Amino acid sequence: MQAVAAESAASRRRFLAPLALAQFICSFAGSNMNVMITDITKDLDTTVTGVQAAITLFLLIMAVLMIPASKLTDRWGRKRCFTAGLVLYGIGALLSAVAPGLGVLILGNSVFEGVGTALLIPPVYILTTLHFGDLTSRARAFGVISGMGGIGAAAGPLIGGLITSAISWRAAFLFQAAIVLTIVLLSRRVQDPLPADPTRPFDAVGAILSAVGMFFVVFGILQADRDAALMAVLVAAGVALLIAFFVYIRARERAGSEPLLSTALFKNRTSNLGLATQNIQWLLLMGTSFVVAVFLQEVRGYNAIQTGVIFTPATVGVLASSLAAERLAKRRAQKTLIIAGFALAVAGVAVLLALVGASSRVVAFGPGLLLIGLGIGVMLTPSVNLVQSSFPEEQQSEISGLSRSVSNLGSSFGTAIAGTILVSDLASGNTSYVVAMIVLAVMALIGLAVATRLPANPAPGRASTAAAGPRALDVVGEHG
Fold it and tell me: Which of 119, 26, 113, 115 is nearest to 78 (CA)?
């Protein structure tokens, strides 16, 4: 029996390893460029705003394509989409490594890596849901994947800084390509439990409306420091397109056709609140990473390795709280953990604000980043569990795509909103930094308010694996 159990555990690890590593490298890609900004601007003869646009565009392309890509997994197959996404990502990393200018960097990093990530991430969560049949093992798997995502985002500046200082910023993209190759090799034995259905309809109009709408909103925010009128027009156009998208998919449902996204997904209160917390969590993590990294390089004059090392407390915080997630969830409800996470994040931002004026030393950033890392690590997995467990298995591809899209939209909002405030007036020194961090503090407080409205005992989705009633959800909470 022990041999069978060991074999089963080893099989689970082999299945989960490439999926968790894929989430790690995609999250890593979203934050590691933050410490290379000075090196990239000098090497490619561009500006901080140009590099910010490349970073934000990468995160945005992920967000706008995540929902359509999740639907394509049914037509093309989950394993095929995963592999195709890895190939595109690898090509993008290699293009970025040899980029002669900002245009090629955007093509490689923002477009190829962005599209590749949008294709490969939904299968990570769908395959996990399908492979782990019971809620206990599924929640543990989500914990590993979400934890690796948080660690990747938090460790991105540290690893990127080390590679950039030791070799060059281009080597950091070669590192990504090497990790992608490793994932391809590790995933050879991963099997898709469901056959692809080439006849499955795909809502192209809905995909265009949703993608262009989200793109206009974030792109408009990026124009805030250049042209307020243009920003207002773009954001208004984006909102109008998103409203049109919702009206369109509702009409398509009423006509009996399959929409890009079921409107029923938005009728689940627990899921809606959980998605809001996911969005704000990633906004805080990526917004803080960008603001602190740019401030240290452009205002304080730190190099890549100095900037990366300063982010060590955030990495330690996410790692420590992620490792303790299962133990914490056995003692506390998911709602409690999410509230605690936001409270820690609020405290972390407050400490960063308090110490930036009190001390110019490196250690002034450590306590605040540690608190933010601890807070993010505590609440990442419970938020994912709440959302995924709110729906039955037949809706997992849709909710996985929506969940990842909302999270990545939060990442792009963090870089776009807080980053634009900072970059708009770097010459002011601490002032623009303080304003940007105050905005992040307000967002953290909004996240805390949303978390308090989560139901104490949400009902699980009525799937075959979630039919155990309230006790089934307790298991998710214990192992989130």
Answer: 119
**What per-residue string of b and e applies to 430-452 under the rule 16 or more CB within 10 Å gives b?**
eebbbbbbebbbebbbebbebbe
pLDDT classification of 136: cutoffs 50, 70, 90 = low
Three-state DSSP state, 44: coil
**Cβ proximity of 38 and 203 under 8 Å:** no
CB 302 within 8 A of CB 411: no
Tokens at residue 475, please? 């298991």
Q: Is the pLDDT of residue 323 over 80?
A: no
Distances (CA, A) of 348 to 274, 293, 376: 22, 16, 11
What is the Cα–Cα distance from 139 to 321, expressed in whole angstroms?
Answer: 16
> In this structure, are residues 387 and 274 in contact, taking their beta carbons and an 8 Å threshold?
yes
User: Considering just the CA atoms, what is the radius of gyration of the chain in Å?
Assistant: 21
> Which structure tokens are listed for 86?
């890895």
What is the mean pLDDT of the segment spanning 297-308? 83
Q: Please state, in angstroms and rounded to a whole number, the distance separating the CA atoms of residues 56 and 321.
A: 27
Supply the pTM of this predicted model.
Answer: 0.79
Confidence of residue 471 (pLDDT cuts 50, 70, 90): very low
Distance CA 415, CA 407 (A): 13
Q: Residues 42-66: pLDDT tens digits?
A: 999 998 888 888 888 888 888 888 8
Residue type for 112, please?
F
Report the candidate in 249, 201, 219 with the shortest Cα–Cα distance to residue 74: 201
Decide: residue 113, CB within 10 A, 0-12 exposed, 13-18 middle, 19+ buried.
Answer: buried
pLDDT > 70? residue 470? no
Q: Is the pLDDT of residue 286 over 50?
A: yes
| Of 156-170, 172-186, 390-404, 457-471, the least confident | 457-471
Query: Whole-angstrom Cα distance, residue 136 to residue 148?
Result: 19
**Residue 147 to residue 372: CA distance in whole angstroms:** 14
